[in-house]
Amino acid sequence: MDPTYNDEAEAYRKEVRAFLDAHLPAGWRGAAAMGDQERETWTAAWRQTLAANGLRAVAWPAEYGGGGLSPLERVILAEEFTRVDVPLEFGNDGFGFGLLGPTIIARGTEEQKRRFLPRIISGEDRWCQGYSEPGAGSDLAGLSTRAVLDGDEWVINGQKIWTSSAQTANWIFVLARTSPDAPKHKGITFFLVPMDQPGIEVRPIKEMTGHALFNETFFTDARTAKENVIGEVDEGWAVANTLLGFERGGRATVMSISYRKELDALIELARERGRNRDPVIRDRLAWAHTQVELIRFLGMRTLTRALAGDGPGPESSIFKLLWSEYHKKVTEAAVDILGADALAPSGPPPSVAIGVAEGEMTPASVVGTFLGARAGTIYAGTSQVQRNIIGERVLGLPREPRADSGPWNELLRT
Ligand SMILES: Cc1cc2nc3c(=O)[nH]c(=O)nc-3n(C[C@H](O)[C@H](O)[C@H](O)COP(=O)(O)OP(=O)(O)OC[C@H]3O[C@@H](n4cnc5c(N)ncnc54)[C@H](O)[C@@H]3O)c2cc1C
User: Is 382's C-beta closer than 6 angstroms to any atom of ligand 1?
Assistant: First the structure.
Protein backbone atom coordinates (compact mmCIF):
# COMPACT_ATOMS: atom_id res chain seq x y z
CA MET A 1 0.00 0.00 0.00
CA ASP A 2 1.38 3.41 -0.92
CA PRO A 3 -1.22 6.04 -0.19
CA THR A 4 -1.19 9.03 -2.51
CA TYR A 5 -3.04 12.33 -2.73
CA ASN A 6 -5.31 13.39 -5.59
CA ASP A 7 -4.31 15.92 -8.30
CA GLU A 8 -6.12 18.76 -6.57
CA ALA A 9 -4.12 18.18 -3.40
CA GLU A 10 -0.84 17.99 -5.33
CA ALA A 11 -1.68 21.28 -7.08
CA TYR A 12 -2.23 22.91 -3.70
CA ARG A 13 1.09 21.44 -2.51
CA LYS A 14 2.85 23.32 -5.33
CA GLU A 15 1.15 26.56 -4.22
CA VAL A 16 2.34 26.05 -0.65
CA ARG A 17 5.89 25.32 -1.78
CA ALA A 18 5.86 28.48 -3.90
CA PHE A 19 4.64 30.47 -0.89
CA LEU A 20 7.43 29.09 1.30
CA ASP A 21 10.06 29.75 -1.38
CA ALA A 22 8.85 33.32 -1.70
CA HIS A 23 8.68 34.10 2.02
CA LEU A 24 11.41 32.15 3.82
CA PRO A 25 14.84 33.76 4.16
CA ALA A 26 17.55 32.54 1.76
CA GLY A 27 19.47 29.54 3.11
CA TRP A 28 16.62 28.58 5.51
CA ARG A 29 17.68 25.65 7.77
CA GLY A 30 14.61 25.41 9.97
CA ALA A 31 13.32 27.15 13.10
CA ALA A 32 15.22 24.70 15.35
CA ALA A 33 18.54 25.77 13.86
CA MET A 34 18.08 29.36 15.15
CA GLY A 35 19.26 30.73 18.46
CA ASP A 36 16.53 31.69 20.97
CA GLN A 37 16.75 35.45 20.31
CA GLU A 38 16.88 35.06 16.53
CA ARG A 39 13.90 32.68 16.62
CA GLU A 40 11.84 35.11 18.69
CA THR A 41 12.38 37.99 16.26
CA TRP A 42 11.72 35.78 13.25
CA THR A 43 8.58 34.30 14.84
CA ALA A 44 7.01 37.74 15.41
CA ALA A 45 7.55 38.65 11.75
CA TRP A 46 6.41 35.22 10.51
CA ARG A 47 3.13 35.54 12.43
CA GLN A 48 2.43 38.73 10.49
CA THR A 49 3.31 37.02 7.21
CA LEU A 50 0.88 34.20 7.98
CA ALA A 51 -1.87 36.64 9.00
CA ALA A 52 -1.37 38.76 5.87
CA ASN A 53 -1.76 35.65 3.72
CA GLY A 54 -4.81 34.23 5.51
CA LEU A 55 -2.80 31.36 6.99
CA ARG A 56 -3.75 31.70 10.66
CA ALA A 57 -6.56 29.30 11.67
CA VAL A 58 -6.64 27.86 8.17
CA ALA A 59 -9.41 25.36 8.91
CA TRP A 60 -11.88 27.83 10.37
CA PRO A 61 -14.70 29.32 8.34
CA ALA A 62 -13.78 32.60 6.63
CA GLU A 63 -16.71 34.41 8.32
CA TYR A 64 -14.88 34.14 11.67
CA GLY A 65 -11.55 35.25 10.20
CA GLY A 66 -10.27 31.76 9.33
CA GLY A 67 -8.63 30.64 6.09
CA GLY A 68 -11.60 28.47 5.04
CA LEU A 69 -9.28 25.73 3.68
CA SER A 70 -10.66 22.27 3.05
CA PRO A 71 -9.43 19.50 5.40
CA LEU A 72 -7.21 18.12 2.63
CA GLU A 73 -5.65 21.52 1.87
CA ARG A 74 -5.01 21.96 5.57
CA VAL A 75 -3.18 18.65 5.73
CA ILE A 76 -1.03 19.50 2.72
CA LEU A 77 -0.17 22.88 4.24
CA ALA A 78 0.81 21.29 7.58
CA GLU A 79 2.90 18.63 5.81
CA GLU A 80 4.83 21.17 3.74
CA PHE A 81 5.47 23.45 6.71
CA THR A 82 6.67 20.48 8.78
CA ARG A 83 8.96 19.30 5.98
CA VAL A 84 10.96 22.55 6.14
CA ASP A 85 10.54 23.03 9.91
CA VAL A 86 8.35 26.13 9.78
CA PRO A 87 5.79 26.37 12.59
CA LEU A 88 2.15 27.23 11.89
CA GLU A 89 1.45 27.77 15.59
CA PHE A 90 3.44 29.33 18.42
CA GLY A 91 3.26 29.53 22.23
CA ASN A 92 -0.34 29.29 23.41
CA ASP A 93 -1.67 28.86 19.85
CA GLY A 94 -1.99 25.09 20.28
CA PHE A 95 -4.74 25.57 22.89
CA GLY A 96 -6.54 28.32 20.98
CA PHE A 97 -6.24 27.04 17.41
CA GLY A 98 -5.98 23.32 18.01
CA LEU A 99 -8.38 22.73 20.92
CA LEU A 100 -10.68 25.53 22.02
CA GLY A 101 -11.36 27.10 18.59
CA PRO A 102 -12.61 23.83 17.00
CA THR A 103 -14.66 23.14 20.17
CA ILE A 104 -16.33 26.57 20.00
CA ILE A 105 -17.02 25.97 16.29
CA ALA A 106 -18.58 22.58 17.14
CA ARG A 107 -20.51 23.52 20.28
CA GLY A 108 -20.44 27.29 20.91
CA THR A 109 -23.19 29.81 20.20
CA GLU A 110 -23.04 32.16 17.23
CA GLU A 111 -22.21 35.01 19.59
CA GLN A 112 -19.34 33.04 21.17
CA LYS A 113 -17.92 32.23 17.73
CA ARG A 114 -17.98 35.90 16.71
CA ARG A 115 -16.49 37.05 19.98
CA PHE A 116 -13.73 34.50 20.70
CA LEU A 117 -12.51 33.11 17.37
CA PRO A 118 -11.17 36.37 15.85
CA ARG A 119 -9.36 37.16 19.10
CA ILE A 120 -7.53 33.82 18.96
CA ILE A 121 -6.47 34.61 15.40
CA SER A 122 -5.21 38.10 16.25
CA GLY A 123 -3.27 36.78 19.26
CA GLU A 124 -5.22 39.08 21.61
CA ASP A 125 -6.43 36.00 23.53
CA ARG A 126 -3.88 33.37 24.51
CA TRP A 127 -5.50 30.25 25.99
CA CYS A 128 -4.50 27.49 28.40
CA GLN A 129 -6.30 24.35 29.57
CA GLY A 130 -7.70 23.96 33.10
CA TYR A 131 -8.72 20.29 33.21
CA SER A 132 -6.40 18.34 35.56
CA GLU A 133 -6.49 18.70 39.33
CA PRO A 134 -4.31 17.17 42.07
CA GLY A 135 -7.06 14.58 42.66
CA ALA A 136 -8.36 14.25 39.09
CA GLY A 137 -6.22 13.35 36.08
CA SER A 138 -7.12 10.14 34.25
CA ASP A 139 -10.32 10.14 36.28
CA LEU A 140 -11.08 13.64 35.12
CA ALA A 141 -14.76 13.44 36.06
CA GLY A 142 -13.62 13.22 39.69
CA LEU A 143 -12.73 16.93 39.62
CA SER A 144 -13.71 19.05 42.59
CA THR A 145 -13.26 22.69 41.50
CA ARG A 146 -16.63 24.34 42.19
CA ALA A 147 -18.55 27.10 40.38
CA VAL A 148 -21.58 28.87 41.84
CA LEU A 149 -23.77 31.43 40.08
CA ASP A 150 -23.85 34.81 41.82
CA GLY A 151 -26.11 37.22 39.93
CA ASP A 152 -24.62 37.67 36.45
CA GLU A 153 -21.33 35.97 37.28
CA TRP A 154 -19.99 32.53 38.12
CA VAL A 155 -17.69 32.35 41.14
CA ILE A 156 -15.01 29.65 40.89
CA ASN A 157 -12.99 28.05 43.71
CA GLY A 158 -10.48 25.21 43.48
CA GLN A 159 -7.10 24.20 42.06
CA LYS A 160 -5.89 23.05 38.67
CA ILE A 161 -2.47 21.52 38.02
CA TRP A 162 -0.08 20.84 35.11
CA THR A 163 -1.51 23.91 33.34
CA SER A 164 0.85 24.23 30.37
CA SER A 165 1.69 27.79 29.26
CA ALA A 166 -0.53 29.39 31.93
CA GLN A 167 2.29 31.85 32.51
CA THR A 168 1.73 33.39 29.06
CA ALA A 169 -2.06 32.95 28.83
CA ASN A 170 -4.72 35.59 29.49
CA TRP A 171 -7.71 33.16 29.28
CA ILE A 172 -8.23 29.63 30.58
CA PHE A 173 -10.94 27.10 29.76
CA VAL A 174 -11.98 25.38 32.97
CA LEU A 175 -14.04 22.35 33.93
CA ALA A 176 -15.83 22.94 37.22
CA ARG A 177 -18.57 21.21 39.17
CA THR A 178 -21.88 23.08 39.18
CA SER A 179 -24.16 20.37 40.64
CA PRO A 180 -22.20 18.61 43.39
CA ASP A 181 -24.99 16.15 44.15
CA ALA A 182 -25.38 14.90 40.56
CA PRO A 183 -23.58 11.70 39.39
CA LYS A 184 -19.96 12.62 38.70
CA HIS A 185 -20.16 12.84 34.88
CA LYS A 186 -23.23 15.07 35.13
CA GLY A 187 -23.08 18.37 36.94
CA ILE A 188 -19.82 19.54 35.30
CA THR A 189 -19.75 22.79 33.27
CA PHE A 190 -17.22 24.08 30.71
CA PHE A 191 -16.23 27.71 31.45
CA LEU A 192 -14.19 30.37 29.70
CA VAL A 193 -12.42 32.43 32.37
CA PRO A 194 -10.27 35.58 32.05
CA MET A 195 -6.98 35.15 33.93
CA ASP A 196 -6.16 38.77 34.55
CA GLN A 197 -8.00 39.01 37.89
CA PRO A 198 -7.04 38.82 41.59
CA GLY A 199 -8.86 35.47 42.07
CA ILE A 200 -6.38 33.55 39.89
CA GLU A 201 -2.82 32.74 40.89
CA VAL A 202 -0.33 30.87 38.68
CA ARG A 203 2.66 29.11 40.26
CA PRO A 204 5.31 27.55 37.99
CA ILE A 205 6.36 23.88 38.36
CA LYS A 206 9.99 23.17 37.47
CA GLU A 207 10.39 20.06 35.31
CA MET A 208 13.29 17.61 35.12
CA THR A 209 14.51 19.42 31.97
CA GLY A 210 15.14 22.50 34.12
CA HIS A 211 12.40 24.49 32.37
CA ALA A 212 9.02 25.44 33.85
CA LEU A 213 6.53 24.90 31.02
CA PHE A 214 3.57 24.04 33.23
CA ASN A 215 2.02 25.40 36.42
CA GLU A 216 -0.36 25.10 39.33
CA THR A 217 -3.38 27.41 38.92
CA PHE A 218 -5.36 28.47 41.99
CA PHE A 219 -8.91 29.88 41.87
CA THR A 220 -10.08 31.86 44.91
CA ASP A 221 -13.46 33.49 44.23
CA ALA A 222 -12.39 33.92 40.60
CA ARG A 223 -15.18 35.31 38.42
CA THR A 224 -16.44 34.95 34.90
CA ALA A 225 -19.54 36.30 33.15
CA LYS A 226 -22.70 34.16 33.21
CA GLU A 227 -22.64 33.72 29.44
CA ASN A 228 -19.04 32.38 29.34
CA VAL A 229 -20.22 28.77 29.32
CA ILE A 230 -19.80 26.46 26.30
CA GLY A 231 -22.79 24.15 25.89
CA GLU A 232 -25.35 23.86 28.67
CA VAL A 233 -24.72 24.29 32.38
CA ASP A 234 -24.13 20.80 33.92
CA GLU A 235 -23.51 19.33 30.44
CA GLY A 236 -19.79 20.17 30.21
CA TRP A 237 -18.61 16.55 30.12
CA ALA A 238 -19.69 16.19 26.48
CA VAL A 239 -17.93 19.47 25.61
CA ALA A 240 -14.78 18.32 27.44
CA ASN A 241 -14.73 15.13 25.37
CA THR A 242 -15.21 16.96 22.08
CA LEU A 243 -12.08 18.91 22.95
CA LEU A 244 -10.12 15.80 23.98
CA GLY A 245 -10.86 14.22 20.59
CA PHE A 246 -9.12 17.16 18.90
CA GLU A 247 -6.21 16.83 21.37
CA ARG A 248 -5.61 13.12 20.71
CA GLY A 249 -6.18 13.02 16.97
CA GLY A 250 -4.44 16.20 15.84
CA ARG A 251 -1.39 16.33 13.57
CA ALA A 252 -2.22 12.91 12.15
CA THR A 253 -0.21 13.03 8.95
CA VAL A 254 2.54 15.46 9.96
CA MET A 255 3.69 13.32 12.87
CA SER A 256 5.35 10.76 10.60
CA ILE A 257 7.12 13.53 8.68
CA SER A 258 8.66 14.94 11.87
CA TYR A 259 9.56 11.47 13.10
CA ARG A 260 11.07 10.49 9.75
CA LYS A 261 13.34 13.55 9.80
CA GLU A 262 14.31 12.84 13.40
CA LEU A 263 15.02 9.16 12.66
CA ASP A 264 17.13 10.01 9.59
CA ALA A 265 19.20 12.35 11.76
CA LEU A 266 19.53 9.61 14.38
CA ILE A 267 20.73 7.06 11.81
CA GLU A 268 23.29 9.64 10.69
CA LEU A 269 24.40 10.12 14.30
CA ALA A 270 24.80 6.33 14.69
CA ARG A 271 26.90 6.28 11.52
CA GLU A 272 29.12 9.18 12.66
CA ARG A 273 29.78 7.44 15.96
CA GLY A 274 30.36 4.02 14.41
CA ARG A 275 27.37 2.63 16.34
CA ASN A 276 25.60 1.53 13.15
CA ARG A 277 27.71 -1.63 13.21
CA ASP A 278 26.36 -2.66 16.62
CA PRO A 279 23.69 -5.35 15.93
CA VAL A 280 21.54 -4.28 18.88
CA ILE A 281 21.50 -0.64 17.74
CA ARG A 282 20.77 -1.76 14.16
CA ASP A 283 17.85 -3.81 15.41
CA ARG A 284 16.44 -0.84 17.33
CA LEU A 285 16.80 1.47 14.34
CA ALA A 286 15.07 -1.08 12.09
CA TRP A 287 12.24 -1.30 14.62
CA ALA A 288 12.01 2.50 14.64
CA HIS A 289 11.73 2.52 10.84
CA THR A 290 8.76 0.14 10.91
CA GLN A 291 7.08 2.20 13.62
CA VAL A 292 7.40 5.42 11.64
CA GLU A 293 5.84 3.65 8.64
CA LEU A 294 2.97 2.44 10.86
CA ILE A 295 2.47 5.97 12.16
CA ARG A 296 2.38 7.19 8.54
CA PHE A 297 -0.28 4.66 7.51
CA LEU A 298 -2.39 5.23 10.59
CA GLY A 299 -2.16 8.98 9.98
CA MET A 300 -3.53 8.42 6.47
CA ARG A 301 -6.38 6.35 7.87
CA THR A 302 -7.24 9.10 10.34
CA LEU A 303 -7.14 11.60 7.49
CA THR A 304 -9.46 9.45 5.38
CA ARG A 305 -11.93 9.42 8.23
CA ALA A 306 -11.71 13.18 8.68
CA LEU A 307 -12.17 13.76 4.93
CA ALA A 308 -15.30 11.62 5.02
CA GLY A 309 -16.68 14.17 7.49
CA ASP A 310 -16.45 11.95 10.56
CA GLY A 311 -15.30 13.43 13.86
CA PRO A 312 -12.34 12.06 15.81
CA GLY A 313 -12.93 8.33 16.43
CA PRO A 314 -11.11 5.46 18.13
CA GLU A 315 -8.20 6.04 15.72
CA SER A 316 -7.23 9.02 17.86
CA SER A 317 -6.56 6.72 20.84
CA ILE A 318 -4.68 4.16 18.72
CA PHE A 319 -2.67 6.96 17.16
CA LYS A 320 -1.87 8.64 20.49
CA LEU A 321 -0.70 5.32 21.97
CA LEU A 322 1.44 4.48 18.96
CA TRP A 323 3.28 7.79 18.55
CA SER A 324 3.90 8.45 22.24
CA GLU A 325 5.24 4.95 23.00
CA TYR A 326 7.37 5.05 19.84
CA HIS A 327 8.90 8.37 20.76
CA LYS A 328 9.71 7.26 24.28
CA LYS A 329 11.59 4.20 22.98
CA VAL A 330 13.37 5.82 20.04
CA THR A 331 14.73 8.59 22.26
CA GLU A 332 16.05 5.89 24.62
CA ALA A 333 17.88 4.42 21.62
CA ALA A 334 19.24 7.90 20.84
CA VAL A 335 20.66 8.23 24.36
CA ASP A 336 22.25 4.77 24.06
CA ILE A 337 23.83 5.76 20.76
CA LEU A 338 25.40 8.77 22.47
CA GLY A 339 26.65 6.59 25.32
CA ALA A 340 28.64 8.44 27.99
CA ASP A 341 28.18 11.79 26.19
CA ALA A 342 24.53 11.70 27.21
CA LEU A 343 25.51 11.80 30.87
CA ALA A 344 26.90 15.33 30.81
CA PRO A 345 25.74 17.22 27.73
CA SER A 346 27.14 20.72 27.54
CA GLY A 347 24.57 23.51 27.71
CA PRO A 348 20.97 23.35 28.93
CA PRO A 349 18.41 21.11 27.21
CA PRO A 350 16.41 22.99 24.55
CA SER A 351 13.16 24.54 25.74
CA VAL A 352 11.18 22.68 23.07
CA ALA A 353 11.09 19.84 25.57
CA ILE A 354 7.91 18.10 24.41
CA GLY A 355 8.81 17.90 20.77
CA VAL A 356 10.83 16.19 18.17
CA ALA A 357 14.56 16.74 17.83
CA GLU A 358 14.95 18.82 14.69
CA GLY A 359 18.07 19.93 12.88
CA GLU A 360 21.50 18.92 14.10
CA MET A 361 21.55 16.27 16.85
CA THR A 362 23.70 17.49 19.70
CA PRO A 363 24.00 15.69 23.05
CA ALA A 364 21.94 18.51 24.64
CA SER A 365 19.14 18.25 22.06
CA VAL A 366 19.07 14.43 22.27
CA VAL A 367 18.87 14.47 26.07
CA GLY A 368 16.26 17.28 26.04
CA THR A 369 14.07 15.34 23.60
CA PHE A 370 14.58 12.11 25.59
CA LEU A 371 13.38 13.82 28.77
CA GLY A 372 10.48 15.55 26.99
CA ALA A 373 9.33 12.30 25.36
CA ARG A 374 8.52 10.83 28.81
CA ALA A 375 5.64 13.32 28.99
CA GLY A 376 4.06 12.15 25.72
CA THR A 377 2.67 8.96 27.26
CA ILE A 378 1.02 11.00 30.05
CA TYR A 379 -0.56 14.18 28.67
CA ALA A 380 -3.76 14.05 26.60
CA GLY A 381 -4.60 10.73 28.30
CA THR A 382 -2.03 8.19 29.53
CA SER A 383 -1.08 5.04 27.61
CA GLN A 384 -2.96 2.84 30.08
CA VAL A 385 -6.10 4.92 29.59
CA GLN A 386 -5.75 4.73 25.79
CA ARG A 387 -5.41 0.93 26.09
CA ASN A 388 -8.61 0.81 28.12
CA ILE A 389 -10.43 2.84 25.46
CA ILE A 390 -9.10 0.62 22.67
CA GLY A 391 -9.96 -2.55 24.61
CA GLU A 392 -13.46 -1.49 25.51
CA ARG A 393 -14.62 0.70 22.63
CA VAL A 394 -12.68 -0.73 19.67
CA LEU A 395 -12.26 -4.41 20.53
CA GLY A 396 -15.45 -4.73 22.58
CA LEU A 397 -13.65 -6.43 25.48
CA PRO A 398 -15.32 -6.56 28.89
CA ARG A 399 -15.13 -3.30 30.81
CA GLU A 400 -12.29 -2.81 33.26
CA PRO A 401 -13.44 -3.52 36.83
CA ARG A 402 -14.46 -0.22 38.47
CA ALA A 403 -13.69 0.57 42.07
CA ASP A 404 -17.36 1.05 42.90
CA SER A 405 -19.09 -1.80 41.04
CA GLY A 406 -18.80 -5.14 39.26
CA PRO A 407 -17.95 -8.74 40.12
CA TRP A 408 -14.33 -7.97 41.02
CA ASN A 409 -15.55 -5.70 43.73
CA GLU A 410 -17.84 -8.38 45.05
CA LEU A 411 -14.84 -10.74 45.12
CA LEU A 412 -12.66 -8.18 46.86
CA ARG A 413 -15.30 -7.61 49.49
CA THR A 414 -15.54 -11.32 50.36
C1 LIG B 1 3.76 17.74 29.83
C2 LIG B 1 2.38 17.73 30.36
C3 LIG B 1 1.54 18.80 30.08
C4 LIG B 1 0.24 18.82 30.59
N5 LIG B 1 -0.55 19.90 30.34
C6 LIG B 1 -1.79 19.97 30.87
C7 LIG B 1 -2.60 21.12 30.68
O8 LIG B 1 -2.22 22.10 30.03
N9 LIG B 1 -3.81 21.16 31.27
C10 LIG B 1 -4.30 20.11 32.00
O11 LIG B 1 -5.43 20.19 32.47
N12 LIG B 1 -3.55 18.99 32.21
C13 LIG B 1 -2.31 18.90 31.66
N14 LIG B 1 -1.53 17.78 31.88
C15 LIG B 1 -2.02 16.75 32.79
C16 LIG B 1 -2.40 15.43 32.14
O17 LIG B 1 -3.59 15.54 31.43
C18 LIG B 1 -2.47 14.39 33.26
O19 LIG B 1 -1.16 14.24 33.79
C20 LIG B 1 -2.98 13.06 32.76
O21 LIG B 1 -4.33 13.16 32.45
C22 LIG B 1 -2.78 11.95 33.83
O23 LIG B 1 -3.34 12.32 35.04
P24 LIG B 1 -2.49 12.26 36.41
O25 LIG B 1 -1.19 12.96 36.17
O26 LIG B 1 -3.36 12.78 37.49
O27 LIG B 1 -2.17 10.72 36.65
P28 LIG B 1 -3.14 9.62 37.25
O29 LIG B 1 -4.47 9.70 36.57
O30 LIG B 1 -3.12 9.73 38.73
O31 LIG B 1 -2.43 8.30 36.80
C32 LIG B 1 -1.32 7.72 37.49
C33 LIG B 1 -1.01 6.38 36.85
O34 LIG B 1 -2.13 5.49 36.99
C35 LIG B 1 -2.54 5.00 35.71
N36 LIG B 1 -4.00 4.88 35.66
C37 LIG B 1 -4.92 5.80 36.03
N38 LIG B 1 -6.16 5.35 35.81
C39 LIG B 1 -6.04 4.10 35.27
C40 LIG B 1 -6.97 3.11 34.82
N41 LIG B 1 -8.29 3.32 34.87
N42 LIG B 1 -6.47 1.95 34.33
C43 LIG B 1 -5.13 1.72 34.26
N44 LIG B 1 -4.22 2.62 34.68
C45 LIG B 1 -4.66 3.79 35.18
C46 LIG B 1 -2.08 6.05 34.73
O47 LIG B 1 -1.92 5.52 33.43
C48 LIG B 1 -0.74 6.48 35.34
O49 LIG B 1 0.28 5.59 34.99
C50 LIG B 1 -0.23 17.74 31.39
C51 LIG B 1 0.62 16.65 31.65
C52 LIG B 1 1.90 16.65 31.16
C53 LIG B 1 2.79 15.48 31.46
Answer: yes
